[in-house]
Write a structure and sequence with these properties.
Elements lengths: L6 H22 L6 H14 L3 E5 L2 H11 L6 E6 L5 H8 L3 E5 L10 H14 L3 E8 L8 H11 L2 E5 L7 E2 L7 E2 L6 E5 L13 E5 L2 H10 L22 H32 L12 E2 L5 E4 L3 H13 L28 H9 E4 L7 H14 L1
Parallel strand pairs: 2-3, 2-4, 4-5, 5-8
Antiparallel strand pairs: 1-9, 6-7, 6-10, 8-9, 11-12
């Protein structure tokens, strides 16, 4: 059966180096915060182009650590795209702050700057919450529209937290003379190393990126029980959120192969789009942007056709996924929150999107098989 994201195939390609990396950790016996962790942090910071990278236990913790470093809490408003994974807003509520949901663009799936500014204006007019942070999610591998988001953030004096859980490896070429990589666009940025992410480990993992020395120091403290200069002098209430050495060693191997894999998924995406563009709404990558294609997501006219098509693919042994069937403002856990703006696009996307198999080792013949079944089932 075809795999949605073929991690077994990736392992076979990288097997020799990954096996050696795991054996090296086992023989070295530095299982927690071993030397590979610090090496990986340096390599990731250099790859992204920022001063600091601090790894942690998972992508959700990475977001939490960023909010803690900024002191976000009760009375603060944090603006979150309505079409995203639950964790993007969950971390806000866990800190006692209030997530305010913002509509997204129907072609990029990312936060819409016009909707964002309207939401900020409504919060300011109401006067109950203090706008503090914009969480911009790099959904499905594509960086958000940071030129537009930064203009809004600067106008209202807000911080940008880049949720790059799916976006690692994406890029924007029109911010600076050189290409800028995902996880360098926010005041703080985060990513996830969950196995199915563009750069995934063999368990859970995450990272925080920033150029700010003070924030990096706070994240470093918070991730290890709020430690001070002496690890047994705890100067604040923190977390236990460290990346295992074994995962760091695996990620070092995968990082060396990563640029090649990003090229592969972009070639796969081009092949999909060539075959499908006359039949369904295919993903759009704006000029100057690059995607790492965490997902290849098409849009169907309505939920009924989406469901029929997904059933037809399943019958043919082809996996597919719906990300996300329920927008944030409809989540049960957030039913008590005020909807300042009714997000129309996110509701529509929840009913019409469908993600197809996508990974760096997807064969052209598999893409053609998926497309033939899909087109025949329309």
């Amino acid at each position: 059966m075809m795999q949605f994201r073929d991690l077994a195939k990736q392992y076979q390609v990288l097997k020799s180096d990954i096996d050696q990396a795991m054996l090296s950790v086992a023989s070295g016996a530095h299982y927690i915060m071993g030397p590979e962790v610090k090496e990986l942090e340096q390599q990731l910071a250099e790859y992204v182009g920022v001063k600091h990278c601090l790894t942690c236990a998972n992508g959700t913790d990475a977001l939490t650590l960023a909010l803690k470093a900024w002191g976000i809490g009760p009375g603060d408003a944090v603006f979150v795209p309505d079409f995203t994974f639950f964790a993007s807003a969950e971390v806000v509520a866990l800190e006692g702050a209030t997530p305010v949901f913002v509509d997204v663009d129907d072609t990029t799936f990312n936060i819409d700057a016009d909707s964002l500014e309207k939401a900020i204006s409504l919060i300011l007019a109401e006067g109950k919450l203090t706008p503090k942070v914009i969480i911009a999610v790099d959904l499905f591998g594509l960086p958000a529209n940071y030129p537009a988001v930064k203009a809004v953030a600067e106008k209202y004096g807000l911080l940008i937290l880049e949720d790059g859980a799916q976006g690692f490896g994406g890029s924007i070429s029109n911010l600076k003379p050189q290409i800028s990589k995902a996880c360098s666009f926010g005041d703080i940025a985060t990513t996830s190393f969950f196995p199915a992410k563009p750069l995934g480990c063999y368990g859970d993992g995450g990272a925080v990126f920033t150029n700010n020395d003070e924030w990096a120091g706070l994240v470093n403290s918070y991730r290890v029980h709020g430690k001070g200069t002496d690890k047994y002098d705890n100067v604040r209430i923190g977390m236990n959120s460290r990346l295992d050495t074994l995962q760091a060693a695996i990620l070092q191997v995968k990082l060396r192969a990563f640029d090649r894999e990003v090229e592969n998924v972009n070639e796969a995406a081009r092949h999909y789009t060539k075959l499908l563009k006359d039949y369904v709404k295919t993903p759009v990558i704006p000029e100057g942007f690059g995607s790492s294609w965490a997902q290849y997501t098409i849009q169907l006219p309505d939920e009924q056709q989406r469901n029929r098509l997904q059933a037809a693919l399943k019958e043919a042994g082809i996996p597919s996924m719906v990300y996300y069937p329920k927008p944030m403002h409809e989540q049960t856990a957030f039913q008590h929150l005020t909807s300042y703006l009714l997000p129309h696009t996110s509701v529509k996307l929840s009913q019409t999107v469908l993600s197809l198999p996508m990974h760096p080792y997807l064969e052209a013949a598999d893409i053609e098989h998926v497309c033939s079944v899909l087109i025949a089932s329309l």
